[in-house]
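Crash report, auto-generated. Payload:
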Amino acid sequence: METPPSFTLPFIIGLLVIISFLIVVSTIWIVGLSKTDKIRIIKGFPSQKTLGAVRETFTEALLHRKIFRKNPRLGYMHMSLAFGWFLLIVAGHLEAIVHYRTLAFPFWKSIFFRFAEQAPATGFTARFFAAVTDFLLLFILSGVVLAYYKRFNSRLFGMKKTTQMKAGDKIALAALWLIFPLRLAAESITAGLHHNGSFLTQPAGNLLASAFPLQPVEETVWWAYSVSLGVFFTAMPLSRYMHIPVEVLLIFLRKYGIRLKKGVNTYTRIQVFSCSRCGICLDSCQMNQANIRNSQSVYVLKQIRGRRLKDDQLFNCLLCGRCQKDCPVGLDLNDLRITQRIASTREYNSSYDYLKNGPSPRTEVIYFAGCMTHLTPGIKKSMQQLLNYAGVNFWFMDEQKAPCCGRPLIQVGQYEAAKKLIRNNTEKILLSGAKTLVVSCPICYKVFREDYTLPGVTVMHHSQYLLELVNQGRLPVFSLPGKAVYHDPCELGRGSGIYNQPRELLGNYISLIKTPHEKENAFCCGGSLSNTRITMEERDQIRDKVLEEFQSFHPDHLVTACPLCKKTFTKGTDIRAYDLAEIVWKGVSHSKTIPKRSSLPEAAIPLGLQPGKPSGISIPSLP
Amino acid sequence: MNTFGYKIMSPRTIDFDQFDGRLLNEILEKEPSFRTCLSCGGCTATCNAGTLIDFNVRKLNLLLRRGEIVSLAREIDKCMLCGKCMLVCPRGINLRNVIMLLKKGACRLSECKGQTGVDTL
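Recovered output after restart:
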C-alpha cells in the first residue's frame, strides 16, 4: 500500500482520537440507560422511527431549520458550515471513487485529493467534480466569513448576546475558523503549480504564482491544513463542538421515545453534550431584565457537563420555558434543571407524616382552588358563584384545609416530598368518586395532569371548564366594555399547551387585543415559584418590563388565567389585572339578574356552604 | 453558669455560651432579606401547613436566632413550600429560599442521610 505523505499524520491522529472517544462515550451512555430505554432502542430501530430520525438529522443537524426560522442569517451561517462541510466530504469521496474506479482507495486520498492527484482535470466528470468541490468550499467560506463577523457584531444575527467560552472552545473555534481558509490556500497553491484547480482555486493559484514561488511553501500549507483538522478533532471532546456528533445520537434516542426521568442518568449527559452553546437561550431569558446573567440554560448545561454546578446558578431560574421553546436542539431545559434540583436536594425531603386522610364527600365535580387562589379571593369567589349559577354540584376540596398540590415542591426538586402530598390528595379525590377535577391555578393543573394518577377523573383548568359550561348554555354570554390583553401563564401555556380555550372563553365576554407576546412567546410575570434565589426587587424589575410591553397596546384590562400572575401584576400597574373567572362572572352577573339562592336547586349549593347562611354573593361593578 | 441564686428549670435554659450561630450566620449571609423580618406573623396566619398541624413560620426565626437547630429541623420538615408566606410578607423576604437553605443547612450540620434528614438527628 502506498504510504500517505507525512503531513496527513495530524489529521489521521485527530480522526482516530475523536472516533475512539465517540465510541467509548456513546457505549458508556447507552449501557447506562435503564432497561426499558434499551428495549425502546431495540424495538424502535427496525421501525419507521429510524427513518424519522434520519429525516430530523438532515433537517436539524445539517440544514438547521429551527435556527433559520429564528433568524435567516444565523441559519445560513450554521447551514453553510454543517451542510456545506457534509456535502464537501461526500463530494470528495464520490470524486475519489469515480477517479479510482474502486471503493478500495487509500482513505486519505479523498480528503487531500488535489494533492494526491496533481494531473489537471480532464474529461467532463473530473471537471464537474472539481467545480463542485470548489463551489462547496466557497459556500462554506461564506459561512466562515459570517462567523468571523458574528464574533464582532452578533446583533446582525438577531442575537444580543453570545456565550462566554472556555479554553477548549477557543482552541476548537480557532481551528475551525482556519480549516477552510487553509484548504483554499493549499488547493490554490497546488493548482498554481500543477493546474488542477477549478473556477475558484485556479485563478487564486495563478494569482499566488505570479506573486511568489509556490514550490517551497506547498507542503507547509498542506501541513497547516492537516494540523488544523487534527487540532479541531482533538479539541472537540473538550469543546462545545461535541454537539455535532452527540446531537445525532440524541435525535435517534428521542425518536425511540427515551425521555428524561425524575433523576439524573446518562440521557442527561447526552442532552448536556448536545448543547451547542449557540446562546439563543440567552436572548429569550427574562432574567436579563434583572441583570442576572450567569444562570441561563446554556451556562447551567455547561456546568452540569463539567460537574461544577452550584446551587446559586441552579435555583436562579423561573422555569418559564422560554429558552426551551427557542432551543434549536430541542433540549428539555426545564426538566434538565428539575432533575438537577432533585439530585441537589435529595437528602432532605420532608416526610409529612402528619397528613391524614380527611373525609371525602361523594360528589361529581371537585373544585381545587390552590394555595395561590386563596391569596386572590376574588377568583375563588367568582368560581364559587359561577359554579353555583350553572347548578354544578361540587365539593370545594381545599376550602378549609388541604395539603398543597405538590408542584411547588417539584419545582425546587423535592420530588420525594411531593409524592407524599400527591398520595394524600389522590386518595381524597378518588374516594369522592368525582369525574371532574376543576383547578383554578395552572401550577396545580400541571401537576394534577402530569404527576397524579387519577383514573376516571378529568382534570380541567377553570378556563376549560367554564368554556364547557358556556358551550352547554349553562352560563350566559355578555359583552363587557373595554379591551383586554390576555397574558398566557407559563405553566398553562408553554407548560401544558393550553392557549386557545382561555381565548375562546374570554372572546364571549370581552374583546381581546392581539400582541406579539402571546401563546408560546408569552412572557413570565416574574412571580414564578420556581426561582428561590431571585430577590423581590429583581422580580419587580422583570414584572415592570412585562407591564411596560403590555401597556404599549393601551389595554383597559389585563386578563390572565393564573392567580400568581394576577397577584404579581396587581402590585405593579394602574391597569387592573383580572383572572378570567372574574371577567366571566362580571359578564354573567351583568347579563341577567342573579337568581336568588333559594331558587337554585338543592344540588347547586356547595358542600362547604351551609344553606341559610348568607354567602356574601354580591354583583361586582365594572371599574 | 451563674444563676444569681435563682432557680431556673434546666429544660427551659438557653445557654448562650454554647450558642450555635452557624446556621444563622449562613442564612443571613445567603438571604440578607431575612434580616428585615419584623415578626408580624403574616406568614404564620396564611400558612397552608399551619391549617393541618401546629406549625409556626415566625417561630422558625426565633429558633434560628436561639441556635436550636434540632427543633428547627423538626419544624422545617412540616413546610410544604407553597410560597404563600413569601407573597404576604410585608418586607418581601424570600422565605422559600430561607426554608430551603435551612433544610440544607440543618441536614448538613446533622450529617443527615436518607430521605427525610430529620430521623437521624
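Post-recovery validation: The radius of gyration of chain B is 15 Å.
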